[in-house]
Fold:
Amino acid sequence: MNRPAPLVELREVWKSYRKGSETINAVAGVDLDLAEHGMVAIVGPSGSGKSTLLHVIGGMDRPTRGSVRVAGRNLSDIPQGELTRFRREVVGFVFQTFNLIPNLTALENVALPMEFSGVARAARASRAKALLERVDLGQRSRHRPNELSGGEMQRVAIARALANEPRVVLADEPTGNLDSATGRLIYELLQSIARERTVVVVTHSEELARLADRVLHLRDGRLSNGAASAVSSGTAQVPSARQEQTRA
Amino acid sequence: MGMILLGLRNLFRNKLRLMVVVLLLATPFFLLLAMQSIADAVGRQTTTLMQDVNTVLQLRARGSMGHINMIAQDRILPDSVLDKVRGIEHVAHVEPYLLAMAPITPPNFVMHVGLAPGAVKRLESHGEAGNPRIIAGRDFRPEDAGQDVAIIGQGYAAWARIGPEDIGRATMTVDATRTHPVIFALDRPKRELRIVGMYASGYVFGDLQLFLPIDTFRSIYGTREGISWIFARVDSVDNVARVAQGLREVVGDVADILVPQNAAVFTATTSRAVIRLAWTGGLLAFVLMSLVVFFVLLMQVRERAREIGTLKAIGASNGAVSAQFLTEAVAVTLLGGVLGLAIFRLAGEAVTGRLFAFGIGPFLPAHYKPLFESLSVGSQISGPVLLLVVLVAVAAAALGSAYGVRQLVKLSPLEAMQHE
Structure:
C-alpha cells in the first residue's frame, strides 16, 4: 500500500548563525516528516532551536543547508516571490506576541492575508467574520487589539492564521504570554483546528504538549531519540525523526 | 489599493505620535518658508534701494556749487545739458533744480530751491535722502507750477516764526537784494509766497530750505535760463558707471558729474552679499528640511520593523509593504507641510522678523543694519516656491521611507521582526 507523501519533509536541515567567530547551530541536521492533519508539538528547553525549526518549516527563514519541502514546494531554493506566496497560501503563523496590526480592527486583521491573496472585499469580510465567530470573537470584531485581552488577541491571531485556509498552521509559543487557563483554551482551539489541517506548535510546556498528537523533543538543535512520544489520534504519522551527530 | 488605504489609516493609529511627527516635519517647512520670505523681502528692499537711492547722479556747472547768488559759485548749467542728459542710454529720469541762498541770523543762511512740483524735494547737503516728510499742510500739486507757493522746512519756519498751525495762511517774503559775506544781491523785486506745507527731514541743515515751483523761482530771481543742479536716475545700479562715463563724454566739458561711486559699489556689493546671505539661509533651511524629512521618515519605518516582518510573515509582498509605507510617508509629510504653511501664514510675519534679526542681522555690516531694521517681512509665499518645497519634501519623504522599507523588506520576515 502506498503511503501518501508527507506534507512537511525535512532532510538533513541545518540552520547556523555566526556570533563573532563562533558558529551556532540552532538546527543541526534534522530529518523530519509530518503528515497532513494532526497536531504536533515541538518541545525543548530555551535555545534548543524549536522556534528556528518552526521558522524554517514556515519559510520565515531559509535553512543554511538541507532540504525543506512543504506541500510539494522545496523552500530551500525557491525565489523570494514564490516564498512570499508560500507563506500567504500554505502556512498560517501564530506568534507568541500576537503580532496584530494595531490600528486595524479584529475583523480587518483577520481579513488582511486575504487582501494579499486578492480575495474580493465582500468575501474577505464574510470569511473573516466566520473565522472570528469560530474563535468565539464574533462580538469583538470591531475592536482593535488594544481593546482586547491577551487571550482574545491570540484568538484573533489564530483566526488570521486560518484566513487563507493554509494546510499548515505554525504556532510559536502561542500561550507564552497567557495565563494557564487561557493557554489551555488556546490549545484546545488549536486542537480543533488540527482535525482539518496540520498544526505545529512550539512550546516549552510539557503539560500542554501532551495534548498534541505527536511530540518532538528538541535539544541543541537536534531531535532526540524517541521524539515521537505520543500519538493520541490516528492522524499522526509514525515519526521519522532521527538523531544526527552534531558536526563540528 | 488596499495597502494604500491601510497606509492612510496608519497615519491616525497614534494621534500623539502623529502630532509629534507632523510638528517635527512642520518645523523645517516653516523655517524654509520663513527663510524664503526673508530672502524675498531683502531682495525687494534691496531692489528699491538700488533703484531709488544709489543710482542717482548729480550734475553741476564745472567748479561751481550752482547757487545762483553765491559768490564765486554762481555758474550754472546751460539748458542744453538737460536734453543731452535725457539722451543718455539707461538714464531713467531727470530732474532739474535751481538754488539760491538767503541770509538769516542765525544760522547765517538758508536755501531756496526751485523744482518741478512733482520732483523729489532734495536737501542741499543730503540730496540722496530726498523727499522729507510733510508734517503740516500739503505737498505740491501739478497746478502749483508757476504759482507763488512754497513748502518750508521746520527749521526755517521756526526762524520765521511760522508754526504748523499757520500753514496755508502764512506768507514769506523772498528778498533777493539781501546780502551776506558769501551771498551777493540781485536787483529783483520782493515777492511774497504763501506757505502751503511744512516738512521735516531729520537733518538740521536739511530743515533750512524753502521749496518753490521752478518757474516761480525763475520769475523771482530773474533766472530765465540755466539749471543749478540736475539729478539723473539710472535704471539700474549696474549701469551707473556706464551712464557716468556717457555723461562725461557728452557734457563733461561743462559739468561736474558727482557719481555716488562708493555708494553704488557699496550697495551693489553689500546688497548682493545680503541677498546671498538670505538665500544661503534659505538653501540651508531647504537642506535641513530635506534631511529632517528624510530621517524622520527613515526612523519611522525602522521602528516599525516588527510590523513589516509580520506583514511579510502573513504573506504581504515587498511591493505591498512598500506601497503602504510610502503612502504613509507622503501623507504625513503633506500634513507636516500644511501645518508648516498654516503656522507661517498665522505667525510668519512676527516670527520671521525675529528670525531675520537673530539669523541674518548679526552677519550684516554694521552700517547696513539700519536699512534692514525696518525690513518688512510678509507671510506671503509664491505658488511655484510652495510647489517646489512640497515636491522636494515629498521626494525626501519617499526616499527616506523607501530606503528604510527596502532595508527591511529584503530581509526575511524573521530578520525584519528581530531588526528592532
